[in-house]
Design goal:
about 120 residues, mainly beta, 11 strands, about 55% strand
Length: about 120
């Protein structure tokens, strides 16, 4: 129900935009989030978005921007000033409300940042 795309190989300092296209759920009815899992590490929160609010992990604040296009039922993650430590598989997810678990997960898209 969530299809993430847009990953790839980029040099440090470069940019990528990830997309998360939803089917069978309407993103405007969910809190949409991005997470990532780096090699050998636990999955971590990156950013989330709900009407009138966005929230970012400190490690990406000022460099990443989450947005949504309700007409396209798609969530985006614009990633600028990428660093090698941003290398990870990035996942999008949907939660029905604040404090609730993310019930729906995409398959992940790999981002590799070379130094």
């Amino acid at each position: 129900q969530l299809q993430a795309s847009g990953g790839g190989l980029v040099q440090a300092g470069g940019s990528l935009r990830l997309s998360c296209a939803a089917s069978k759920l309407t993103i405007s009815s969910y809190i949409m989030g991005w997470f990532r899992r780096a090699p050998g590490k636990e999955r971590e929160f990156v950013a989330d978005i709900s009407p009138g609010r966005t929230y970012y992990a400190d490690s990406v604040k000022g460099r990443f921007t989450i947005s949504r296009d309700n007409a396209k039922n798609t969530v985006y993650l614009q990633m600028n000033s990428l660093k090698p430590e941003d290398t990870a598989v990035y996942y999008c997810a949907a939660a029905p409300g604040w404090g609730e678990a993310y019930d729906y997960w995409g398959q992940g898209t790999l981002v590799t940042v070379s130094s």
